[in-house]
Write a structure and sequence with these properties.
- GO terms for molecular function: kinase activity.
- Pfam families: DAGK_cat.
- InterPro entries: Diacylglycerol_kinase_cat_dom (IPR001206), Lipid_Phosphate_FormReg (IPR050187).
- Belongs to the diacylglycerol/lipid kinase family.
- By secondary structure, the protein is an alpha+beta fold.
- The chain folds into 2 domains: 130 residues, Probable inorganic polyphosphate/atp-NAD kinase, domain 1 (Rossmann fold), CATH 3.40.50; 174 residues, Tumour Suppressor Smad4, CATH 2.60.200.
- The chain is built from 8 helices and 16 strands.
- The strands form 3 sheets. Strands 5, 6, 7, 8, 9, 10, 13, 14, 15 and 16 form a 10-stranded antiparallel sheet that branches. Strands 2-1-3-4 form a 4-stranded parallel sheet, with helices on both faces.
- Strand 5 and strand 6 form a beta hairpin.
- Helix 1 packs parallel to helix 5.
- The longest helix has 14 residues.
- The protein is globular and about 55 Å long.
- The protein binds adenosine-5'-triphosphate.
- Adenosine-5'-triphosphate (ATP) binds next to helix 3.
């Protein structure tokens, strides 16, 4: 079995020692090629090359950003995606293996992997030896002739504004810790527009919902973690179903506090409240905005957009887990 390991040396919790331990462990089980990412987007190119060269596995040591790039490289194949037309498209692409090396590691943890890289390495090695695979669906966002796949979430509005603000802080050298996200979210709440909702949600078979301030689009649950606590605005979302959505039509504290309390409490029922828009297991929907709205995907800020379509891509990848 041939595997390409992509290491992002700049990811928050990745270091040379962890990388070397992992290389030794994986190298004893598979024929291993190791590549370090050198710039933004490099993981996509490397994963695309791995697929073109017929590798069986693409392994990633890094955070959710690097995993997102690798997944996009695997699906946007260099010579076109000939797997999309297979009954099971995942079987025509290298399998994915992830070892958490970022700050939040949402994708890895949502798959049930331990957040500790050493323990996670043990778990994925076992999966590799036993051939244990899980087929997962992905989300795809499409806007203005562009598109990108996402593994766990996308968002428009306030949450994307917070992602943008945290990215700004990281640009000035500060790390993205859970505390920093929470503090930035609280500070930014004072600045976000709470009086002029910009978005309308619509889709095939979905009644139009107007006046949406922010929307979280999920391919799995949890949406994120604050430390060890899972945050679940869309508790029914899963890798094996279509996309879920939670939209907020009120941004005042009286409306938001009960919702925040509910999504921070582990529960199987959907959040309840009068000004919520919720979708479960949908193949496609579109958010259109009266003015450009902040947009994020797997925690990566992607600018301001006026219309984004979200599509579920079933059976997209096999993950060794
Ligand atoms: N050599 C590099 N130098 C600078 N940036 C890089 C390099 N290699 C990859 N990147 C970029 O770093 C970004 C962040 O990496 P990654 O997501 O792996 O770690 P993280 O940000 O610590 O984790 P998380 O996404 O969980 O917060 C990615 O978008 C990737 O494009």
């Amino acid at each position: 079995m041939r595997a390409m390991l992509l290491v992002n040396p700049k990811a928050t919790t990745t270091n040379a020692r962890r990388r070397d331990v992992l290389i030794r462990a994986l190298g004893a089980t598979v024929e291993l090629t190791v590549e370090q990412t050198r710039y933004r987007g490099h993981a996509a190119t490397l994963a695309g090359t791995a697929r073109a060269k017929g590798y069986d596995v693409v392994a990633v040591l890094g955070g959710d950003g690097t995993i997102n790039e690798a997944v996009n490289g695997l699906l946007n194949a260099i010579n076109g995606d000939d797997a999309a037309h297979l009954d099971d498209p995942s079987s025509g692409r290298p399998a994915l293996l992830v070892i958490p090396g970022g700050s939040a590691n949402v994708f890895a943890r949502a798959l049930g992997l331990p957040n500790d890289p050493v323990e996670a390495t043990g778990a994925v090695l076992e999966a590799l030896r036993d051939g244990r695979r899980r087929t997962v669906g992905l989300g795809q966002a499409l806007w203005e002739g562009e598109s990108r796949y996402f593994t766990f979430c996308s968002g428009m509005g306030y949450d994307a504004e917070v992602v943008r603000a945290v990215e700004g802080l990281r640009g000035s050298g500060r790390k993205a810790t859970p505390t920093r996200y929470v503090n930035t979210a609280l500070r930014h709440y004072l600045a976000t527009d709470k009086h002029h909702p910009a978005m309308t949600l619509a889709g095939p078979g979905i009644p139009a919902a107007k006046g949406v301030y922010m929307a979280i689009i999920s391919n799995t649950s949890p949406w994120t973690y604050v430390g060890n606590r899972p945050v679940c605005p869309t508790p029914w979302a899963g890798f094996e179903t279509g996309l879920d959505l939670l939209g907020l039509q009120r941004m005042g504290l009286i409306s938001m506090l009960p919702v925040i309390r509910q999504i921070l409490t582990e529960r199987d029922s959907l959040p309840s409240g009068r000004h919520l828009v919720q979708l479960h297991d949908e193949p496609e929907f579109t958010l259109t905005a009266e003015r450009p709205v902040a947009f994020q995907l797997d925690g990566d800020y992607l600018g301001e957009r006026e219309s984004v379509t979200f599509r579920s891509i079933p059976n997209a990848l096999q993950v060794l887990v």
